[in-house]
Amino acid sequence: MYILGIESSCDETAAAVVEDGRRIVSNVIASSVAEQALYGGVVPEIASRRHAESISLVAMQAMKKAGLTPDQLDGVAVTFAPGLIGALLVGVNFAKGLSFAWNKPLIPVHHLRGHIAALYLTHPELKPPFLCLVASGGHSHIVQVQDYTRFQVLGRTVDDAAGEAFDKVARTLGLGYPGGPAISKAAKQGNPLAYPLPVPKVEGRYNVSFSGLKTAVMNAVNQGEMRGCPVVVEDMAASFERRIDQILCDKLMLAAKDTGATQICLAGGVAANSLLRSLVNDAAQKLGAKVYLPAPSLCGDNGAMIAAQGFYELEQGHVGDLRLNGLPTLPIDFT
Ligand code: KG4
Ligand code: ZN
């Protein structure tokens, strides 16, 4: 089965064709991240405009690279939630048009379910159930993936998402956008023990909180400036990265121990973080659990992950029609 996947929830306009939810046939991405970086973060109106300009070209390229004609497709999957509403609507309306014109099922896909499905593209042998930390710019969830379309959220951030914390701290340190890769790069030259940062207290056994951590960095930077001894950016980047990754890893392992998980996964943009990947690898090994990580190129937003999840949603008969709307928020376990 061939599914065309379309993604436009944030700053990547992406389309891909995936076979049977597991094999990438084509994968095309046009990103407005360089332009967004000029403003220090995503400007929703710019994102929507760039999607509108690129989506047709990106989708047609994905079809061309796959060497498929529309009649060979089995469905058109599209991210419909959550995300920036103006950005989502571009993808949703375009997908509705294709579905109608080509007479193919329209498959609404939840963005975070898509991030999890990126794991199936990297590890053809992986099957639910498994425990997954999904950490992106907008979300940080510890999720029990019970089946391809059944999810239980065990824990979540009570304030900032992990990616958002990376982005905000990077901005404070003058490292630019997107913050995750910039902090990682600077951290490689720094000492992770240089600045003792707090472990924020939070209610809920598997919940996380990052706003206190972010504030601690800001305070240290401000105090350093006032006292005439500025923080060493590389050392602060390394200290912050170590602390946030350790918090994420510890919570994931706590959930893994409590639930007796034998398969532990990472997903979302933050899953590209190499320190987080190695911390989780080491900790899971001690638990005797197997670790599955998405290929770094599939951690960020892409169309292939949407097509992969679309395959499993279609299997369950989860199809939409021309009334489909974009939704800025929607829980991953929606029914
Ligand atoms: O999943 P994603 O591409 O888009 C959303 O759905 O939000 O995630 C983007 C987030 C950004 O906050 C970015 O800074 C973060 O993922 N990110 C990273 C890394 N690469 C991207 N965070 C930490 N380390 C990285 N290497
Ligand atoms: Zn994402």
UniProtKB/TrEMBL annotation:
GO biological process, one term: tRNA threonylcarbamoyladenosine modification
CDD domains: ASKHA_NBD_TsaD_bac
Binding site for Fe cation: H111, H115, D301
Positions bound to substrate: V134, A135, S136, G137, G138, D167, G180, N273
PANTHER family in alphabetical order: TRNA N6-ADENOSINE THREONYLCARBAMOYLTRANSFERASE, TRNA N6-ADENOSINE THREONYLCARBAMOYLTRANSFERASE, MITOCHONDRIAL
Protein's job: Required for the formation of a threonylcarbamoyl group on adenosine at position 37 (t(6)A37) in tRNAs that read codons beginning with adenine. Is involved in the transfer of the threonylcarbamoyl moiety of threonylcarbamoyl-AMP (TC-AMP) to the N6 group of A37, together with TsaE and TsaB. TsaD likely plays a direct catalytic role in this reaction.
Protein known as: tRNA N6-adenosine threonylcarbamoyltransferase
Species the sequence originates in: Candidatus Allofournierella pullistercoris
